[in-house]
TrEMBL record:
UniProt keyword terms in alphabetical order: Membrane, Transmembrane, Transmembrane helix
One BP term from GO: regulation of autophagy
Protein name: DRAM1 protein
Domain CWH43-like N-terminal: start-end pairs: 8-184
Chief localization: membrane
Organism: Menura novaehollandiae
Membrane topology: Multi-pass membrane protein
Transmembrane segments: 54-73, 94-113, 125-147, 159-181
GO cellular component terms, semicolon-separated: endomembrane system; lysosome
Amino acid sequence: MLCCMPGVAFVPALLVSWSSAAFIISYAIAVLAGHVEPLVPYISDTGTKPPESGVFGFMINISALLGAITMYIRYLLIEKQNESSHFVRSSCNMVSLCIGLMGCTGMGIVATFQELAVPSVHDIGALVAFGSGVLYITLQSIISYMSCPQWNTHFVCHIRMAISVISFIAFIPMIVFASQISTTKIDWTPGEKVKLY
């Protein structure tokens, strides 16, 4: 199977490049159009109003597809490595893939349903994308440790686990604060109060 996969390493690099471009381009358009403040806007705010909403939606949907392809390649790679080493059950690898694909679906939902147009669907998509993403990278970190030292170095495993821990720690306040605030518009004036549940 690996002999059928030469050159696929460009897919994760393309995913990172394309996703970065999606955020940067939609941010630039939103700032130049005066739709968001230039200093650290909420990611979804940069994809809420036209014309940046079209660019954001299109590019993030492509990112979701590239993410799914990357996860499938990782799944195939682990399956091939597992044939000789038997370091993980195939069902665990499949569960990890399915969770990752759920995250990609959530990402597509976030891109398709803008923050202010359909906020509940957008928020559910974000929850699925980020929650599944954290779970996916945690499972992949565990699988990396199981395949050590034949297929991974301890250093790579530690880096992956550190990213998983940081992602989990960041996910908790995201849930807490998102559940406290109801966003109904992007533009705020000084002295205006935020609606809390």
